[in-house]
């Protein structure tokens, strides 16, 4: 009996015990689905995040207020330094000499209602004051309309760029350009609508945002202790460390930081956050391996029991094969192949379900791409072979050691 004949016999045994085979393959499929699904979801989300950071570019850095690491007070991050003021941000913008672009922004409100006629959004819109460089620095695109111009930013003209969700809620299929919206007690003319951000990078908050000019935003701020965020993008990535060093020195001078004391502000590259997210994804992948391993361990025990039962039920068949000249090696090979076939059937189903489930989770969390994890698919196939060999080894060994005369007497 050659290897191909063993496969045919194994498939025949699978068909004869369909219910038992399906239940065993289902357990294996659940384990593979958990493994492939979690790893696919993590890779899909990570690919989406990497796309976001590639839009921002690895040649940019941020300067903002310094917060306590891990410190939180009633759900808010604890500040350990005074905010960066508008005048400090403008001073840095004037003095920092480099080849690139600098933008200044400020958060005005995070729970705003936006109105147009009788239509009103939920009180969850975010109002941000920005300059004309904000869109390009943050990888945002316009679905329709135009960006702010420098004169509008400098003079605080009441114009606004709104998120896609707000535009659909207030205007439906009507063109929102040059129409007016009201929020925070003021009236603004819509000059642009942002492309849909989906769930990318922090839910769909990007679709519920309203951008106003920086000078106009200052008239909306109710407190003087508001932090202004600075983002710098360097034309030549090789110069980013030099520009960061210069920006740090200027900010220390502008904020009167004493020699020997720590910076009273935070400066970080955009890629720093990406590195932290990569670290989190590693833990998620480890979790996926653990969950998949535990499930597959249970499946392998179940498969071994089924194979032992199969050996007992087919004792007479084994005796006949040995009497016809089948060697112990061929008998062992037959049952090993049968175990591997059952595992592969479950593995194929698990891989398909895992890809669908993983991409479904990634889509809900913001990924816009359908990710096919070739590496994890190959890993799933290899694991199924390993599980099949481990689970089928003892039953197949036991079958190969049966005495043919005693086996033929078995009823």
UniProtKB/TrEMBL annotation:
Q: What InterPro entries does this protein's entry cite? A: ABC3_permease_C (IPR003838), MacB_PCD (IPR025857), Macrolide_Exporter_MacB (IPR050250)
Topology relative to the lipid bilayer, per the entry, is: Multi-pass membrane protein
Tell me the GO molecular function terms. transmembrane transporter activity
Q: Which residue range or ranges hold the ABC3 transporter permease C-terminal domain?
A: 290-404
Membrane spanning stretches: 21-42, 286-311, 339-365, 371-394
Where in or outside the cell?
Cell membrane
UniProt key word Cell membrane: yes
- Which controlled-vocabulary keywords does the entry list? Cell membrane, Membrane, Transmembrane, Transmembrane helix
Q: Which GO terms describe its cellular component?
A: plasma membrane
| Stretches assigned to the MacB-like periplasmic core domain | 21-248
Which family would the database say this protein is a member of? Belongs to the ABC-4 integral membrane protein family.
- Name by which UniProt lists this protein: ABC-type antimicrobial peptide transport system permease component
